[in-house]
Amino acid sequence: MNYLDIDTKYTPKKLMKLGYEKSFTEKIRNMIKKNEFKTKMPEVLKIPRGKIKSDL
User: Fold this and answer.
1) Distance CA 7, CA 2 (A)
2) 25 closest CA partner among 1, 49, 56
3) Alpha-carbon distances, residue 37 vs 6, 7, 8, 40 (angstroms)
4) 8 Å CB contact between 27 and 2
């Protein structure tokens, strides 16, 4: 299911024609959306674009 859904970009309607239930396809898509944040690196340091003020 993941291969058909993600790599081939099949629509939910086409997946249902292949025999998958609508609730199953929705469940997989929701699981992917919820875990998408795991594929991105966290922001550790954000540097401002303007001048950096120094107290020295």
Assistant:
1) 8
2) 1
3) 17, 19, 22, 6
4) no
Query: Is 15:25 a contact under the CB 8 Å cutoff?
Result: yes
* Helix residue ranges per DSSP H, 1-56: 2, 12-17, 22-34
Q: How many CB atoms lie within 10 A of CB 29?
A: 14
| pTM for the model | 0.55
Contacts of 22 (CB under 8 A, 6+ apart): 12, 16
Chain segment 1-48, per-residue pLDDT in tens = 666 766 778 888 888 898 989 898 889 889 888 888 888 887 777 777
